[in-house]
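To whoever is covering the structure queue this week,

Two jobs came back overnight. Logging them here so there's a record in the thread.

Job A:
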Amino acid sequence: MHARYAKWGFKMLRLKKIAVAFGLVTAAVSMSTSVMAADWKGWNIHVTGYPNTVAMDDFSRLLTEKTEGRINLKMYHAGTLGNQSDAIEQVRLGALAIGNFSLGPIGPIAPEANVVSLPFVFNSVEQAFRAMDGEVGKLISAGLEKKGLIALAYHDSGSRSFYNTQKPITQPDDLKGMKIRVMNNDLYSGMISALGGNPSPMAFSEVYQALKTNVVEGAENNFPSYESTGHHEVAGFYSLSQHLIIPECVCINAKIFNDLSDVDQKAVREAAQESALLQRKLWSERKVASRNKVEASGVKINEISAEQKLAFQAAMVPVHEGFLAKNPELKSLVALIKSTK
């Protein structure tokens, strides 16, 4: 009798050990899964419905889908997590994983990114993306990585032109003495100074009120930004100088990316690049709609002919020369851009 109970007790003890072991394995698997699952935050300056905003939400969806839930991205739009300069630093530090940034404000941090901020360095948006989707884009991303960022894909932001509260711009002299808002980059300040204007670096969110109160008399941007921010309501002259073509990047913190498995790195890149194609399609549609909208509102839009642009381009020669004198190692990158057909 005692032997029977002893045998039964031994079986129960063995079952308990198995149950405990199973529980530990289950807990370990659960912990491993939770460690593998990543919840990322992303920054975007643009408003609801803007091509970039739609595309970044699509990136988030594709990211979860392609990683089978191992990575989830929550996007914060309309600059709700701070201004662009602050957000760039947050992504570099890893406080944010992802940012949709203009390469303009990144230029002072990474000289390779600054080459796209040289006025008239690209001759068209189409040529710009042939360059950015090839070796030029890879070299710029390699430069960014040294500063804690990796460019996963590039968005279209069209060409930037001058707009102001006073008159059409057709020649450099028209900008003489005019206070023009620029992004925080010495190249843009140098550009305005070379044209005879007074550069006023300020945050994008401050421009509407600055134009309205005559703190500045003009700014420069693309049609969708000019329209979506309401700048056309307070600055009714838009002149098609098309002096800058500055792509935007979908950037990720370099350490976060490099710590991913090869499989997830591939998935992240694919998601970014697929959503970038959507952004470019939506952008192409939006720039036409935005131009039509501001024109219908009474904005006076004037073309600047190829011949008239020569005067603007000539004024930029010292800007290019000064930049390359400070960054001689980037001469080959600028030459590669210009040789792209």
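Job B:
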Amino acid sequence: MVSDITESNGSSSMATVCGGSLALMDAGVPIKRPVSGIAMGLILEGEDFTVLSDILGDEDHLGDMDFKVAGTSEGITTMQMDIKVAGITREIFEAALHQAKDGRAHILAEMTKALGSARAELSEHAPRIETLQIDKSKIREVIGTGGKVIREIVAETGAKVDIDDEGLIKISSSDLSQIEAARKWILGIVEEPEVGKIYDGKVVTIVDFGAFVNFMGGKDGLVHVSEMKNERVEKPTDVVSEGQPVKVKVLEIDQRGKVRLSMRVVDQETGEALEDTRPPREPRPDRGDRRGPRGDRGGDRDRGPRRDDRGPPRGDRSRDDRGPRRDDRGPREDRAPREEREPDHIPAFLKSED
């Protein structure tokens, strides 16, 4: 709280106590009782003295004491004394306290005429701070790459968001709606969607087979064209448009985290769940294995009798079983080299004549 004193011929600190107490009550801050304060002065001449109430500037400057006392109707909450003499007697101190009590009571009565207790509701202009604890593993998701996510939250909601290393988030604003918007956004990032629960969302992308909807702040899911309405929908653009707010129900979350949503089972006006009147799809008939049973094609099928007239196994054949060796080829040294011999397939009239 800040107290701005523009002019004073008395105690500005005690004025701050009284004005601050009224300001807190007016803002709806739940203080137990109002507090008032008064500054007491002293004029001392030998053994004679006079205690002054609510001293003015000159009395403070020329007097011997500045004794500030603040408290509620139930007693003193604080006090502070400045003196210009060597000390004061018990008699002076008691007189100053009793006189201060009467002065505080009078001021409290005048304050009560304006406002006697704290208002039941916090003022819409009063600054608020709400705290939210999240898991440490989710801090990075709330901040985003280079602070992108948290800057977007602040820019879109208008609330101030601070987060520490332990996952404690402080959301502050004088507008309760801004705090609530930021809180929902953050919870949407750190919370996981629940199957069967209804959420507020916004269409972000439209494709041929449906629309992708952003919900819970940082989650996306698909509303298939068949889940937009109970009747047949030709094109998703016949029902939704990008940026349109919608209400969706989570139907399924697969193992990869992909979310399947539905609009047709949610009242788009009230957000209440609707009865699913669409008959369930009939299971597809089992077409079986069109290739036939594997047993008919396996290794046990009958291939007929094994041929036994193929002779002994290749490894058991000896060189003598390959027939007589040709001896009409002449000695190896009498034959021309392979590269000089003419192939047998060349016609006779093309062969060279030696």
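Note for Job B: Residues 135 and 167 are 6 Å apart (CA to CA).

Please reply-all if you pick these up so we don't duplicate work.
Q.
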